[in-house]
Amino acid sequence: MEKIYAFIFVINCFLNIYPGARAIGINYGLNGDDLPSPSDAISLLKSRNISKVRLFEPNTAVLTALKDSGIDVILDTENQNLQSFASDPSAATSWVNTNVIPYASSLNFEYIAVGNEVIPGDLAQYVPSAMQNIDAALFAAGFAIPVSHAVSMSVMGPSFPPSNGVFSTEATPIMTEILKFLSSKNSSLLVNAYTWFPRQSDPNNVQLEYALIDDAAKPVIDNSLTYQNLFDAMVDTVYAGIEKVGVSNVDIVVAETGWPTAGSTDATIENAQKFNNNLIKLLASGKGTPRKPGKVVEAYIFALFNENLKPEGVEQNWGLFYPNMTEVYHVDF
Fold first, then answer.
1. What is the full DSSP assignment across 269-307?
2. Strands 220-222 and 225-227
3. In this structure, what DSSP letter does residue 128 have?
4. Does the N terminus or the C terminus of the chain have fewer Cβ atoms within 10 A?
5. C-alpha dihedral, 264 to 265 to 271 to 276, nearest 10°
6. Residues 6+ apart with CB under 8 A from 88
7. What confidence tens digit (pLDDT) does each residue in 160-216 have?
8. d(Cα 283, Cα 287) in Å, to the nearest integer?
9. pTM above threshold 0.85
């Protein structure tokens, strides 16, 4: 099995050298009562050449529809299971037996995300052990599927400019433990990085163009590095934090990013379309970030559909498609 992990590492290195080998993905949420059937949704993904998808929870119908689709999957565990996974290895084994083994022969799980955005917080303490037990269950079942955890930017302390990136005092112990585990497994850290939120919280200092990855933005200078957009700056802020806890070989996968189309200032179809198309263009260039030139960033756009069971306002308006599968706006995948 160690040889399989080494093989995965070699493949990841190959993908970093050849940008075309990686693709942008999309988050497929289910928090709506008017969404299309999973089979129709997966057909939509295939028709748009979207080859990667993230699922926030196991769903039998969706996983069945994904079988033999050629679409890679990040599959999340639910946060409420973290404590049981951490304390009871048999709970982790049961989850793997139910949600991975029946599908693994006919679809590719790119990562298992053990929890989402619980650091800092009461559930954070369970994440490292939960990750280790899910990883052990996968190993015992004969699968070398990388395990990770998805963090928000709230794990960071004051971090401007990006080279000053550092984890918060509260998050540092848990993040250090997680990163050392990821390093030992040649896995990546999943990061939810929305340029929308810094723009909304500090519009006087965060240019709209900078947040939208627009070439017209005034650049930000960080010592010898020049940042043309906030997306690169956020990714490199986390890389700086990773390095400061003594880890150097863990890559970042942006598990969520995007822009809403309604519900608040700057939340317009025009801005959302501009952000996502600029993002795809940036990642397709293969140039990496200023801190990590040439290292391709893999990213997942949030989200596939507008979801009407979320809180009213911005939360219902992140989708690229309406539930009837017509475009909210066009994105050039």
1. HHHHHHHHHHHHHHHHTT-B-SSSBT-PPEEEEE-SB--
2. antiparallel
3. H
4. N
5. -50
6. 133
7. 999 999 999 999 999 999 999 999 999 999 999 999 999 999 999 999 999 999 999
8. 8
9. yes
Which residues lie across from 73 on neighbouring strands? Answer: 53, 109
What are the pLDDT digits (tens) for 104-124? Answer: 999 999 999 999 999 999 999
Residue type, 297: V
160 φ, ψ to 5°?
-130, 135
Residues 6 or more apart in contact with residue 106 via CB below 8 angstroms = 67, 68
- pLDDT digits 0-9 by tens, 216-267: 999 999 999 999 999 999 999 999 999 999 999 999 999 999 999 999 999 9
Quick one: how far is CA 31 from the chain centroid? 18
Residues annotated as catalytic are 117, 256
CA-to-CA separations, 214 to 36, 119, 274, 278, in angstroms, rounded:
33, 31, 8, 7
> Would you give the distance in Å from CA 53 to the centre of its chain?
10
Burial of 175 (0-12, 13-18, 19+ CB in 10 A): buried
Residue in the structure block whose two tokens are 């918060």: 168
Nearest residue to 276 via CA among 238, 199, 333, 219: 333
At how many degrees (to 10) do helices 269-284 and 230-244 cross? 60
What residues contact residue 94 under an 8 Å CB cut-off, 6+ apart? Answer: none
Please classify residue 80 by burial: count the beta carbons closer than 10 Å to its beta carbon, then call 0-12 exposed, 13-18 middle and 19+ buried. Answer: exposed
Q: Which amino acid is at 268?
A: T
Cα gap 188→303, rounded to integer Å: 21
Q: Which two tokens stand for residue 208?
A: 């709209």
